[in-house]
């Protein structure tokens, strides 16, 4: 993949688009902790949407709600108009594929095998077919392998098909994850921090890859911390803070919003999510005398760190 | 990964005459290289000669080692060991015509074979002393053997190792004797072989299986325990030597290239076994081993491929056996029917399938540890159930603790399995008949195993084993895939059970326990799969053979058999959890080698049809 | 049905025994995610330890006097075996894939059985364990054997002590921390190795108490008792919610009751006439396990834990 630095905003999505993803009112509560609160998000076909926010804002949790890894406490997610069942393999079958924040490749399988596993849901040859080894089986295996090799070429990994996934350098592992996700021919690809830990060159290559994915007709929803990557790539950006969607709009709009900056820096601002709860906690601490001593820095910044 | 830098600071003057030695590191004992080679060769020849002498004066020690000029039993083993030692020594030193023996390591196989021969000789000496009561029972020949085998080892330990010490490893800067010893057992990866013409490769495979059959037959036919131990010693050191010499790798490449021929050859070799026997005595052992091994292969689908822990697998064998027994027309069966064999097989397999699904469906949705306990419970419940369905403690189905006996012999298409027949001029008895029948089932199960492994579902199993969450995210229905594996395993066991019912001619509840002295039982089955190596075809077969033969041949361990078995499991998990014949992927799962494992051409790891 | 109080009582007492053993499983599983397969054999060793104490005391000692000595010996032996197992069998395999420690545990369990079978005098058949003579005591309409009284007192004492230990002492809290997140616990300065040993020790100790109760109740012990006891106790632990110590006791009680009531009353259900009685009693535990796994896999007191992607 060539590395190019692109200036200016990316092309916006073509007209005549259809709703690929529509998440409404998604809420996720773990006991007393509300990790995601009433988030609405829509992605149209041909769009690249970015999802940003400080650490602990609930972005990965939101992804997990979309893909059936978690069952949201409230709200619903629909893909191309159909409400999705809460089972990851059915979500993938419907057409949403994902990568993981901490790479979850099948470490002891080869590069080719990883992508072939990704094809699982688009093939149907079961045990009986495997045992009988009829012509249909061989044809299906061959076609799977061809498609897998296409994806490996697409991501630049074709030469390493027999290498074990665990032996790939980090950047290539990320590419393999994307290839594997693409193998299920998704209409929507969820990328969770795809450029974490990458160099500038690798990041740029990833950007090209994502654009190529969009070119192929797959919409993309990407979580990222690299602001330049996001703003150079996405048609729209949504900002998640403390589980709530703070702002959504074009990259320029979001970049200019002071509240976004404040949220990242941790300084308090008007109407910030979680303000009510923080006030409750402070009140409770004062009442029981267990809060920080008055006049300390902790008192000034009611927002605690959450990892 | 052989490097060819000459070791720094080498001061050997005779460089041109010994190009192979200069590259290594010093051996365990610091001997001049020429002296080491000479001593090893002399020792080997001497050991060979000693086998021509008498080792003891009385025939009371089994095998009768009292003759001059005709080596028997343990002496024969020693003879073979010493010849092999000599052969690899010469091969490593470039003697024409033998070089093919050591494409990989040259010193390591010598050391190993010398040690193996020493093991056989000294074990024999010890056994004579113990059985006959004292060293006084040795003849001079025994002393000669003891000393020459020791000389061989001393010489071998003086040979330079095959690889130089890793300069990056601080522990090896000034290695002690033990480290040098361990290092001398490492060997270089063999260079790829010259391409042989196709017929030569197939011939090699055939010869390989011929030798394998011979070795296996020898092992089964050992009439007394001491000989079996000697055999085990020689075979284990020999097999390791084979691996270090690089021959195993070359052979695997060959078999990888010609997979179907390999399996046909293996099948033919196995089918030849009954024809090598003059009586049915050891064929019954072989038949039982085959049943045990085939069931272990079925368990390998569940444990090795899908990674599910099934601790009650023998119950599925029992279900199949009882089902077949009930429809066999036996007079002790409550069902007065007699199904033709194919229908009995379907019944047995079907019954096991049903139980497999019933047990698996609720449990496979949960954490793997729960499956372990539930299957363990099921194994127990099966036994209790069979015991109590005798009409008094429960409805009368299985005749309780007495089981269903007098199961008639099979008659398929007029061929009565219970009678002797003459085929190719050789008399084969009932056990041989059943052995061959079971072999057909083994072939079926091996085919099923291989085909399932290299397919979409085989890959799904590995994915689920590696990371179930990620597998689910790839669209794999984890539960369904696991249930298929579990149910398939149960069905295979049920199939094997239908043959077992006829071989043992009676089925009783006590045959199907979690652990007992006689295999098959769940613990031994699991141990066979793990010992042999999960996920491969040959692994469970080898594991089962060992686990059956060792208690059967070494009767004198008697009471301590199970104690040693338990100890063996603990040690196995501690030191070699991937088993004896593990495939590459399993080795990686257990040991983080930290090495770049780049493929070097030849069949890849990928589970594809390609 | 007029002996219902009797069945309830014996069911509860039986259940208390299962519960004590189940605690051993649940504590170890909660901390290191290992099913200590050999736990049943640890209990069995405890039983033989108690028996040995009895045999070593002078002939004619009253059981009531000997009991404390036997108890100490049983607990001591169990704890020693338990700690030994942790140190020599399980600790070297801490990082290994799940299969390795499980197989090791199976091997260990077989070894322990065979050690008793092979080396303890006369252990190839069952050995008699002393029992209390004298009439039973009547409580609330049920006849309680004197031997069962021991457990009636010991089980609550143990549970209260354990509850106090886990909630109020430093080590107890450290255990909770380790079971939730061992790496962070280490970072907080907790010696996780020591905590793990403590978990094994407590589990084994409770097993020792249960062992004495077993001997007093059944009057004989043999090398095989660990296997079935272990299976049932693990069922109890799962029933109550694996990792939860109160769940273990609750699960044990439920299991004991189910076993008792089923054995007594199943034959009265039409169609099940032949399934009553002792021959099938082990089956009911297993059936109960399957039912629980079907309906409420996290157990009675367990909680669902979400899996972080």
From TrEMBL, chain A:
InterPro entries: AAA+_ATPase, ABC_AA/LPS_Transport, ABC_transporter-like_ATP-bd, BCA_ABC_TP_C, P-loop_NTPase
PROSITE patterns cross-referenced by the UniProt entry: ABC_TRANSPORTER_2
Keyword set, alphabetical order: ATP-binding, Nucleotide-binding, Transport
Biased composition (Low complexity): 287-298
BP term (GO), one: L-isoleucine import across plasma membrane
GO molecular function, one term: L-phenylalanine transmembrane transporter activity
Record GO cellular component, one term: plasma membrane
Any one Pfam family match given in the protein's UniProt record, by short name: BCA_ABC_TP_C
Keyword Transport attached: yes
Region named Disordered: 267-307
Record-annotated ABC transporter domain positions: 21-267
Protein name: Branched-chain amino acid ABC transporter ATP-binding protein
TrEMBL record, chain B:
Main location: membrane
Source organism (scientific name): Streptomyces nanshensis
PANTHER family listed in its UniProt record: HIGH-AFFINITY BRANCHED-CHAIN AMINO ACID TRANSPORT PROTEIN BRAE, HIGH-AFFINITY BRANCHED-CHAIN AMINO ACID TRANSPORT SYSTEM PERMEASE
Disordered: region residues: 1-26
Protein name: Branched-chain amino acid ABC transporter permease
GO terms, molecular function: branched-chain amino acid transmembrane transporter activity
Membrane-crossing residue ranges in chain numbering: 38-57, 77-98, 110-135, 141-159, 202-221, 227-247, 259-276, 282-304, 311-329, 341-361, 368-386, 431-449, 483-503, 523-550, 557-575
Keyword GTP-binding annotated: no
GO cellular component, one term: plasma membrane
Membrane topology, from the record: Multi-pass membrane protein
Pfam families: BPD_transp_2 (PF02653)
Composition skew (Low complexity), residue ranges: 1-19
Coiled coil: none
Compartments (UniProt record): Cell membrane
InterPro entries (alphabetical): ABC_transp_permease (IPR001851), LivM-like (IPR043428)
Record key words, sorted: Cell membrane, Membrane, Transmembrane, Transmembrane helix
From TrEMBL, chain C:
A GO cellular-component term linked to this record: plasma membrane
Bilayer disposition of the protein: Multi-pass membrane protein
Localization terms from the record: Cell membrane
GO molecular function: L-isoleucine transmembrane transporter activity; L-leucine transmembrane transporter activity; L-phenylalanine transmembrane transporter activity; L-valine transmembrane transporter activity
Ranges annotated as spanning the membrane: 12-32, 39-57, 63-85, 97-120, 149-167, 195-215, 246-266, 278-295
GO biological-process terms attached to the record: D-alanine transmembrane transport; L-alanine transport; L-isoleucine import across plasma membrane
Keywords: Amino-acid transport, Cell inner membrane, Cell membrane, Membrane, Transmembrane, Transmembrane helix, Transport
Family, similarity comment: Belongs to the binding-protein-dependent transport system permease family. LivHM subfamily.
Protein name: ABC transporter permease
Taxonomic source organism: Streptomyces nanshensis
